[in-house]
Specification:
Elements (H helix, E strand, L loop, with lengths): L24 H12 L6 H15 L1 H10 L3 E7 L1 H9 L4 E11 L5 H7 E11 L2 H6 L6
Parallel strand pairs: 1-2, 2-3
Protein name: Transcriptional regulator, CopG/Arc/MetJ family
Length: 140
């Protein structure tokens, strides 16, 4: 069965999630010094660069794990039509995404329950509050 699921890398600025971290004052001071000296435009620039460097260092492990655990890497979107096609085919989904999984806002909770067995997302899940509530015990 062919579905219109889109796998892609989100463009810069398309999708971001806010995180909060606690840093020691010495680490924060060193970051501020590098910003002040012009190495980075601001604290966020430094932190994003540090994270990207660490992800690049571990890229092979990430690739191997994604392949082994059959994760979709990037963005995976499910429209109402996608889920209706799954339901019509008598199938159910096990969604596994490293990145962003999104379920269209017009998907009713009943359709999501009828078609989605489990959701594992390492990153972010975008869905209506009603769909998230209906699938709460299936989201890991």
């Amino acid at each position: 069965m062919v579905m219109s699921i889109h796998e892609q890398w989100p463009k810069a600025g398309d999708t971001t999630e806010k995180i909060t971290i606690n840093l020691g004052v010495v680490d924060l001071g060193q970051i501020d010094l590098l910003v002040q000296e012009g190495f980075y435009s601001n604290r966020t620039d430094f932190i994003r660069t540090a994270i990207r460097n660490q992800l690049a260092t571990h890229a092979e492990v990430i690739r191997e794990t994604v392949a082994r655990k059959t994760f979709v890497l990037g963005l995976q979107h499910y429209s109402r039509r996608d889920l209706e096609a799954v339901q019509a085919a008598g199938q159910r989904l096990q969604i596994q995404v490293l990145g962003l999984a999104s379920i269209a806002t017009d998907v009713p909770p009943e359709l999501a329950l009828a078609t989605i067995d489990s959701i594992v997302v390492l990153g972010a899940l975008h869905a209506s509050a009603a769909v998230k509530a209906a699938l709460a015990n299936r989201i890991r």
